[in-house]
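Milestone 3.1: sequence recovery, worked example.
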């Protein structure tokens, strides 16, 4: 999965999209100018390469400080704001989580986007600034409950869910976009807390999972996204996950210790990833497409095909839906305590 530089596909990017190694595109704020432009861009991506199966189009559109498209889209609350309401009113908080998931997914589906890398399933331990209010709650059960409702809303809108950052990013202070975080907990500590939301959501039909660029030093010598222990033994084996495993962005600072871009991609695929992401580094994309020696596994294709969006309606039809009006009104009543936050160009 690659990214694009601007609001339209360049000639170089169009050539990349015809490469059989490329299976999808992730969009960022820089790719958005207007609703009409975005809809045309997504359609252009889907039809590039004249493939039997269209390319996937994804985005990070969680809400709060990680929402790529603003004008023309509902301003979504951060997950923690929903969690704050859930703390005092379980019923209202759960309903808001489902409404947030449905509004997010239905608006993206209306412009043709297949899925968002959401929800965040990390627990807020109060130490990770990069996770922070992106996490629903400070307990495994709270995260699992709210994320389940959020995913139910996404499913109703015709969108698959992708949980992140397996097996849990909330307990480390270092930002993996910039450097390599190390989590020194024992496996049992993670199993009894951080793995619970993933296990619950897997049992509830989670479509994809993105592992963290984190070293769990007392458990395995490889970063989670490059670890057959985490991806094969725990995720596929112990948790019986049958969906898509995405790498986190291989251009992130936390991944650089795994070698050059080709080595990183090879390690991630060998460890068990179905699709790897390369973002914000066109030269890395060019290098990878030229150097990566990878034979397509039909199983990966079957898994990825399940992530194509369903039930698409137009924006006009969506805006005429009383459910949309009611949900947007309910979400607008949530006070946004993170209005001055950063808009990370990352996953």
């Amino acid at each position: 999965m690659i990214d694009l530089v601007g609001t339209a596909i360049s000639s170089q990017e169009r050539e990349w999209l015809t490469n059989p190694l490329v299976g999808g595109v992730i969009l960022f704020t820089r790719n958005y100018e207007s609703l009409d432009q975005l809809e045309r861009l997504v359609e252009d991506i889907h039809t590039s390469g004249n493939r039997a199966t269209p390319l996937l189009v994804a985005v990070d559109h969680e809400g709060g400080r990680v929402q790529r498209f603003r004008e023309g889209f509902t301003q979504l609350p951060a997950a923690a704001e929903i969690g704050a309401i859930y703390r005092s009113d379980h019923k209202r908080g759960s309903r808001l989580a489902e409404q947030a998931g449905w509004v997010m997914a239905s608006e993206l589906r209306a412009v043709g986007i297949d899925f968002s890398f959401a929800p965040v399933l990390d627990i807020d331990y109060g130490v990770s600034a990069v996770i922070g209010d992106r996490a629903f709650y400070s307990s495994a059960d709270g995260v699992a409950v709210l994320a389940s409702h959020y995913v139910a809303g996404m499913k109703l809108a015709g969108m698959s869910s992708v949980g992140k950052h397996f097996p849990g990013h909330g307990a480390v202070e270092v930002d993996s976009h910039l450097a390599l975080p190390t989590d020194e907990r024992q496996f049992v500590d993670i199993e009894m807390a951080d793995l619970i939301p993933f296990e619950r959501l897997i049992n509830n039909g989670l479509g994809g999972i993105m592992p963290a660029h984190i070293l769990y030093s007392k458990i395995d010598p490889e970063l989670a996204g490059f670890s057959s222990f985490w991806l094969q033994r725990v995720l596929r084996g112990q948790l019986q996950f049958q969906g898509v495993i995405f790498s986190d962005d291989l251009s992130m600072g936390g991944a650089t210790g795994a070698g050059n871009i080709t080595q990183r991609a090879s390690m991630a695929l060998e460890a068990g990833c179905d699709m790897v992401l390369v973002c914000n580094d066109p030269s890395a994309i060019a290098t990878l497409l030229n150097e990566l020696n990878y034979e397509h596994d039909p199983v990966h294709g079957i898994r990825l095909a399940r992530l194509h969006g369903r039930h698409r309606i137009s924006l006009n039809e969506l805006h005429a839906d009383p459910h949309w009006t009611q949900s947007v009104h309910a979400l607008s009543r949530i006070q946004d305590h993170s209005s001055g936050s950063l808009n990370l160009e990352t996953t």
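The longest helix spans residues 90-110. The CA atoms of residues 207 and 243 lie 5 Å apart.
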